[in-house]
Structure formats: C-alpha cells, structure tokens
Amino acid sequence: MSKATINSVAKYAGVSKKTVSRVLNEEPNVSSATREKVQQAFKDLDYRPNPIARGLAHNRSFIIGCIYDNPSKSYITRVQTGALSACHEKNYNLLIHPCELRGQALLDNIDALIRRTRLDGIVLTPPFCDKTEVLEYLKSKNIPYARVAPGTLDDDSISVRSNDEQAAFEITELLISLGHKDIAFIKGHPDHSSTTLRFSGYLNALKKNNIEFKPELVDEGNFSYHSGEDSARKILSLSPRPSAVFASNDYMAAAVLKVASQLSLKVPEEMSIAGFDNAPIARHIWPGLTTIAQPVEQMTYTALSKLIEQFTEQDDELPLHQETLEAQLIIRESTDKVKN
Amino acid sequence: MSKATINSVAKYAGVSKKTVSRVLNEEPNVSSATREKVQQAFKDLDYRPNPIARGLAHNRSFIIGCIYDNPSKSYITRVQTGALSACHEKNYNLLIHPCELRGQALLDNIDALIRRTRLDGIVLTPPFCDKTEVLEYLKSKNIPYARVAPGTLDDDSISVRSNDEQAAFEITELLISLGHKDIAFIKGHPDHSSTTLRFSGYLNALKKNNIEFKPELVDEGNFSYHSGEDSARKILSLSPRPSAVFASNDYMAAAVLKVASQLSLKVPEEMSIAGFDNAPIARHIWPGLTTIAQPVEQMTYTALSKLIEQFTEQDDELPLHQETLEAQLIIRESTDKVKN
DNA sequence: AAATGACATGACACCGGTGTCACAATGAAG
DNA sequence: CTTCATTGTGACACCGGTGTCATGTCATTT
Fold first, then answer.
1. Cβ–Cβ < 8 Å for B217, B175
2. How far is residue B316's CA from residue B85's CA, in Å, rounded to a whole number?
3. CB-based contact A96 B74, cutoff 8 Å
4. What's chain B's Rg over C-alpha atoms?
5. Is the peptide bond before B240 cis (omega within 30 degrees of 0)?
6. Are A254 and A285 in contact (CB under 8 A)?
7. Residue B142: which H helix or E strand, with range?
8. Cβ of residue A1 near strand C, that is under 7 Å?
C-alpha cells in the first residue's frame, strides 16, 4: 500500500526526517551520498509527499479558485483547460466556482469559498474581473488574484487579455471592405467590459471609413442566444434593412442566422453576419460564422502562471504583470460582398 | 484578520482546545453552559475551522475528483454543475480532471491525480464509467467511486444512469408514427456504452413496428460534429434517400442538418432529423432539433451524494446503490410527417 | 597547533486540528 | 456513607510535513 510517510522513508534510508525533507525540497547542504540514499528510498517505497501535511506546515492549500459566471459553456471549458494546465505544471489544484454576478450575496459567496478551502489565489474571469467590489474585497482579505480578459488595466494586478477593441475594429472593416454600409450591431451584456470594447471597435471602424453611425442599427443584447433572437427580429424588420449584422458574440450571431432563415433571407447572399469568440457553434451551423478567435486558454494559462510564480518569488518585482495577446479574424461563409 | 485558530478560541472561551473541538463536531458530553460559551467565541472571533488541519488529522482531503473525456462542453458543464451542488452540500471540494481515454498512460495519469491530491473519492463519467481497467484499478487502490450513466449495472458500485435504450426507442417510434420507414441511424463513439444502447433502442423500435432493418442506413460516427458531417454525406447521397435520420447525439444531428442545407434539402419537409442529449445546439439552430433530454445534473448529483454518504455511514448497508432516472422526449421543428 | 568557517545532519517545536485516556465532580444504587 | 456509573473536561500524543537552532566534521587560515 502507498503508506510511505516521511518517517518510514527516514528510517529506511537511515537518516532523520528533516534530511528527507531537505532532499524533497532540493535544499542545499545535503551530501550527494545521503541524497542518493534518500532518493533510492523514495523509489523503493514508492513515496509521495502528502500535500495536505505540507499545506498545513506552510499554511497553504495549493489550491487556486476559478470564479466565473458565463453562459458560454465552451468559454468556460476553455478557461478551465488553460487554468488546469498552469496548475498541473506547478503542482496546484484547481477549484471551479461558478457563481452569479448579480446574486445578492456575491461577496458572502466568495468569502465562504475562501474560508472553506483556504485557497491560495483566485483567477477572475469576465465579468468578475471588472467588478471593483470583488477586487477590493480580495485586496482587503489579502487574497492574490489574477484577471483574465479585464476591460481595464488600471491597477497593478496581474491581468492578461486580448485586444477585443482592435478585433472588433477589424471585423467591422472586413464588412466595410465587402461593400457593406448599413451594418447593424448587437451589443453584449452590460456587465461585461467586452461589450463596451467591441462596440467601440465597431464605432471606430465606421468613423475611420467615413460611414455614418446610425443609432437605430444598434440593439442591446446580453450575449444569450435568446437575446440575439429578439434583437435580430427588430433589426431584420427595419426598413431599409441593413445588409450586414455584427453581433457581439457567436450565440447571438447564430440567432440572427436563425431569424434570417425564418424570414427566408439568404445568408450570405442577402445578408452578411459576423460574430465574435469562435464558439463551437460558429462552425456547427451553416453557413459557418465569420468571427474572432481569442486565445482563451492561453490567456488563462498565462494569468495563472504569473499568479503562481508570484507566490514563490516573493520580493523580486516583476514588472510584466500585464499582457495583451492577439486575437485572430476567422473568415467563414456567413460574410460576403454586398448585393447591389 | 481571520487568524482565529482553535487555540485562540479555546483561550477566549477559557476552555481546552479539545472542548472546542467537541463543540465543533457536535460531540456529546459538553455542558450546555460550556457549549454556549464556545459558540459565542466562534461568533466573536469569526472562527472557521481549517479544513487542511482537519484533513491531516483524519487522513482525508475532502476532495472528490471528477474524471471525464467528452467532446461536448455542455455535457461537461452539466456534470460539473450536478457534482458541485452535491459537494457543496456536504462540504467537499470538487477537482475536475479531464483526461484522454485512449491516452497511453491513462492509469498512470489517474494514479498521479490520486497521489497528488489524496482525494477521497472519484466520479466517473462516460466513457470511463465503463472502462473495466479503470474500475479494477480503483478497487485495487481502495478508492471509492461512483459511476454516472454507465452502460451496465453488473457490479455493486454506485451507479446512476438514465434509460438511453428506452429513450432511443421512443424517438424512433416517433419517427415511425410520422410515417417514416427508411430511418437512417448514425452511431456514436464505440468506446461509449450509450452508443450500443441507443442503437439497440433504434433496432427494437423497428422490430416492434415490423419495419425491415437495412444495414446500409446505419453509419458509424464518433459523437463529433465532424464525424456527423461525414456520415451525413454518405447517408444523404443514398438512393433511395431515407426520409429521416436519427443521429446518436445532437452535434451529429446538427451536422446532418448542415449537409442537408448544403444539398438544398428542406428540413423537416423533405427530411426529418432527430438527435439525442438536448445540447444547446439543438435549440440554437434552425429548425430546432427533436431530441432527448437526460437529467445529467441530477444523475451526477445523485451519484455523488450517494458516494459521500457512503463515507460517513460506514457499516449501514444501503441497498439502493443503483438508480435509473427518466429521460424526456423533446419535440422541435426538425421532425415532421413524411412527404408522400 | 589552535582558531575559524563552511558544510552536513539531527533534535525539537510547530502548523491546527482529532483521538485516547485519565481524572474530577456529580448523582444513583447498595 | 461508601461504591460505582455517568458526565464533563483537559493533558497529551499524533497526523506528516517544515522551520529553527544546536552540534559535529571537516578543510582552511593564522
């Protein structure tokens, strides 16, 4: 059985448990002869240190919490994938914690998580990464945190994001370059900073290309498929009808496609549609959606790696707390030249 | 700061730490006066016991692992939701562990997980719940586990599933009742037991309704959208073309819909399509997919609750280790009467 | 030859809880 | 008025690691 403890290893190797501990942690001042004896004992006894005991001694849990409230399962899964690979690399464990941004007891909820698990740090994903309330609470509790895809980089916390605004600008310019002038826009959930950023990329692209901004072409969604349907119905019944719709995410874009089908509008011949996020649905519907792929896994991985590194290198000031990764335009079948 | 330990509480209340521990664990033989004093101290000092120390003393981690290898993000998320609610209820933590069924070092991978975290139990989701190799390994290591949606109930482990075979039978009968006789079937991934069960439900429905089984109408997929596309292309180019397709999950059904669109085949007028799982995509595409909704959250919740209960009630033999929950037929727009 | 310092090692307390056991106080039974 | 259970309580060791400090062994310096 895997009953080997540090004591049994010490006895087996004929040294003190402290020496075993030294070998374990690669501390200096152990003779190579002793080191080898102990390492042989590790192998012979199939020993693994008990992380719980180690945690108690260090007053650490080696647990990272990941907080999210996001309707997109694929986004969540991608965040988890990135977070897990960072954790595994550094021998940490990941605890997932879905919770509601607007829940009445958000801070109590997070507090309960912290106390129940004694976690060492937290990864905040949208929309929590922009919730001042949460950030200040964590600071006051002295819980280190890292932010994934925040809207602002104004404090000195670890933040990794991608260039939402620039990407929205590019996809809008793509539509413009295809001849579209009346480009409708569906906004995302107001609690998410990406909503503002993407809208602003859209506006910038119009401005740069001297296209008049028409407020009636903008509708407010909330990133859900359902909200996209509502917005699409409004937008597609406008007269004159815009020739393209840029939705702030792929679920809403898919909803636009559905409504277009119901109205027997051909996509992309009569209507171009663009989304954002490169969710699986973007390639699971026909025509496939032109969209933006963000490096979600990599953002999370990077943020978490920085966070964990910060635990170990206590005094070295790392100035590179903030990073912006590139998003990528993906052109599929849902966008085409405007029909004259 | 939340520095309150059992020692500080003991001093504050003027009792020994053992007595505090007794109050914490609701042990008998504490006078009500003492109990109140200690409970007041808990409040005054805002004390929470340290789960790590408790874990060390008990040689427990209060961690449950959840192992999965599933291409469907929504399925994973639903499993997680169910697992989390069971864990929170019993003050356990959930560790997610995606890993590859066919990876060369599956058992090593699981072994590393166990040793790294010292977890108290494992939830196995498809396809792991049917992998004899894994089950036997866990038994040999004495790690308690619960199975979600296993194909067989032949051992005495905790298992919660839904009636896949019956559900597939019903959805096939629905198609038959709509007048379809040539109903194609796309199988799932051979490693998943649901693949066999769903196929067998399909066969039973044909048989019961005296419809000839035509092997050329069956194609092998692997639950992925991509495999569904391949199968759809084969099936839809058959001559004569079947009037309906039943795919073993919604992703493959969505792919059939895409291929049908590309061939300008109208769904459901010229072709009925049914899926399985009620994944988000089933209602995110147009027409919406007729499908089967399984109580995934509830299955996982139930399995995990039973598992955790088993830790506490050590000798009481609970005979209700196995349970089957009802799946539900959901009729949407993708199925209709056959055209004559 | 004695003093110095670098290195190697172990004894011991400690992290924050829990289990075991001893013991005092109380009440009931003989 | 003893005797004996029962109840309430605390001292102490222990879970499996880590930190601190003392000590022993050398090689180097003076």
1. no
2. 24
3. no
4. 26
5. yes
6. yes
7. none
8. no
Q: Which of A174, A53, A122 is nearest to A303 (CA)?
A: A122
**C-alpha angle B242/B244/B246, rounded to 5°?**
120
SS (H, E, C) B201-257: HHHHHHHHCCCCCCHHHEEECCCCHHHHHHHHHHHHCCCCCCCEEEECCHHHHHHHH
Closest alpha carbon to C1' of D10, residue: B16
- At B274 the pLDDT is 98
* Angstrom distance (rounded) from CA A194 to CA A161: 10
Pick from A301, A281, A299: which is nearest to A291 by CA?
A281
Distance CA B273, CA B268 (A): 7
How close B100 gets to chain A, by Cα (Å)? Answer: 13
The β-bridge relationship of strands B145-148 and B121-124 is parallel
The greatest distance separating any two alpha carbons of chain B, rounded to the nearest whole angstrom, comes to 88
Residue whose C-alpha is closest to residue A284's, from A260, A247, A248, A257? A257
CA of B13 to C1' of C26 (A): 23
Chain A 42-101 contacts with nucleic strand C (CB below 7 A): 53, 56-57, 59
Q: How many Å apart are CA A189 and CA B262, to the nearest integer?
A: 33
- Angstrom CA distances, A15 to A34, A38, B115, stand at 8, 8, 24
Residue with tokens 């005979």: B319
Chain C positions within 7 A of any protein Cβ atom are: 7-12, 14-20
Q: Which residues of chain B have pLDDT under 70?
A: 1-2, 313-320, 340
Handedness of CA A251, A67, A323, A295 (dihedral sign): negative
pLDDT at A222: 95
Q: Provide CB contacts within 8 A for B42, sequence distance 6+.
A: B9, B23
Q: Is the CB of B50 under 7 A from strand C?
A: yes
Other Cβ atoms less than 10 A from the Cβ of B298: the count is 18
Q: Among A91, A117, A262, whose Cβ lies nearest the Cβ of B51?
A: A117
Residues 6+ apart with CB under 8 A from A93: A62, A63, A64, A87, B63, B95, B116, B117
CB neighbour list of residue B271: distance below 8 Å, 6 or more residues apart = B236, B241, B243, B244, B245, B260, B265
Type and span of the H or E element at B154: none
Q: Which residue is nearest to nucleotide D6 (CA to C1')?
A: B29
Structure tokens at A243: 């020739």
Distance CA B250, CA B196 (A): 17
Residues of chain A with pLDDT > 70: what percent?
97
Cβ neighbours for A17, distance < 8 A, ≥ 6 positions apart: A6, A7, A9, A10
Four-point Cα dihedral B124, B129, B131, B133, nearest 10: 50
Looking at chain A, which residue has its C-alpha nearest residue B116?
A: A51
The residues near B174 (Cβ < 8 Å, ≥ 6 apart) are B274, B290, B329, B331, B335
- B193: helix, strand or coil: helix
Question: ∠A134-A77-A283 over CA atoms, to 5°?
Answer: 125
How much is the pTM? 0.93
> Which residue of chain A is at minimal alpha-carbon distance from B4?
A115
Residue B219 φ then ψ, to 5° = -130, 155
Residues in chain A predicted with pLDDT less than 70, given as ranges, are 1-2, 313-320, 340
Nearest-CA residue of chain B relative to A81?
B98
Measured between alpha carbons, how far is residue B262 from residues A7, A253, B109 in Å?
68, 19, 43
What local confidence, expressed as pLDDT, does residue A28 receive?
87
Query: Which tens digit of pLDDT belongs to each residue from B182-206?
Result: 999 999 999 999 999 999 999 999 9
Inter-chain contact B258–A55, Cβ cutoff 8 Å? no
